[in-house]
Amino acid sequence: MQRWLPEPFIFAILLTFVAALVAMPLCYQTPLEVVEHWGGGVWNLLAFAMQMSLVLVCGSTLAAAPVVKRAIAAMARLPQSAPAAIALVTVVSALCCCLNWGFGLIVGVVFAKAIARQRSDVDYRLLIASAYSGFVVWHAGISGSIPLTMATPGEALSMATNGALTDPVSLAQTIFDWHNLMTVLFVIIGITVANTLMHPKQGILTIDPMLLKDDDHVATEITTSAKTPAQRLEQSKLLSWLVALMLVAYLVIHLGVRGAGLDLGGVIMIFLALGLLLHSTPVDYVRAFGKATAGAAGIILQFPFYAGIMGIITGIGVSGISLGGVMAEACIRISNPVTYPLLTFLCAAVLNMFVPSGGGHWAVQAPVMFTAGANLGVDPGLTGMAIAWGDAWTNLIQPFWALPALAIARLDAKDIMGYCLIDLLVTGVIICAGLLVWAI
Fold first, then answer.
1. Who has the most CB within 10 Å: 73, 87, 221, 265?
2. What span, in angstroms and rounded, lies between the C-alpha atoms of 196 and 37?
3. Which of these, 3, 11, 2, lies nearest to 399 by C-alpha position?
4. Mind giving me the DSSP string for 321-347?
5. In a domain, 104, yes or no
6. Residue 179 located in a structural domain
7. Which residues, other chains included, contact 175 with Cβ-Cβ below 8 Å and sequence gap of 6+?
8. Any domain includes 311
9. Is 154 left (phi over 0), alpha (psi -120 to 50) or beta?
10. CA 315 to CA 82: how far, in whole Å?
11. Cα–Cα distance between 34 and 137 in angstroms, integer?
12. Can you give the pTM of this predicted structure?
């Protein structure tokens, strides 16, 4: 990986050209059609890119609060050996990603950095890779976008699946089905064992703890006897508390009263409210926030390119077919009721390299895969989870989702992807076995 994996931005450009070159002959599209699909899709992820940037920045700002840093530092002292540290980071990351993928993505790497400050015998690259590896279970957890969409009643579900799903599929048939729960359990065990065994006995790459302390934010209290009105507002804790109270009140109404699910916007609000409460003053929060924004540069630059790739994959030209549809149809032609979930998973895994988005997968695969699954007699919950697992699995080697973690850790994708490739192989065997058992 160190030798062959380019910078994530270069990787995104190469994937763009690959998608374009494949779409033209397979979908009978002209170069001009492909360019139109690409340009038409470039801005389709702007809202999502902003959400991802805010998850990174607000999560990092929260982690910079003095009380949070002390709590994380105390937890980081728990492991008594390097393998134990790797195992603990992996489990914490995976469990948090099961609750919410945005929360887990940030918490895992922040915790890993805290351990790196405490221990000089842990390989830093593997530590960050372990924090990221827990992300593989996110789409099988309670924030999984595809199972949550399937459980939402309404006309949109029937339209998205071409009428294959007229009634919602309960979470008991997807996320909380015992087959899925056992697969999640064995995947977490698998990556924990694999990450622990990968820790080198010699040639450990560590990082100077002083390099990790530049995140520290020192509160600056104005001590002059005569504060200006502006300075009083900047130092007013009441303003922070009032804004945080509004955020909490909205979340209580949205989640508790309205019964809505915790989405990415809710996670951002939680990070924002806690950050405002735990930083000393509004101006301290602003300064910590400003320091954290530099890490969002990769997200801002690369998300439009992946949105363009999604445009190529989903774009339908004069021929009436799309590249995503061609891939799905190829999977269907060689399937039977037992192998269909497995092949659906593999199709989603390949597609995820070009369309690393749960919503993108739903748009491309739902109209085709649920109809074919119904014709083969495959349970729709299994079909949906096969797509969800495929979407999550190849995230291990797709730098797109690693950007927030890498920004916080100050590493390149090539520094962790070698370890993630091993995790990909280990989890691939476990997930395939789980889907086959579920189908049988």
1. 87
2. 44
3. 11
4. --HHHHHHHHHHHT--TTTHHHHHHHH
5. yes
6. yes
7. 140, 141, 142, 144, 147, 385
8. yes
9. left
10. 48
11. 33
12. 0.82
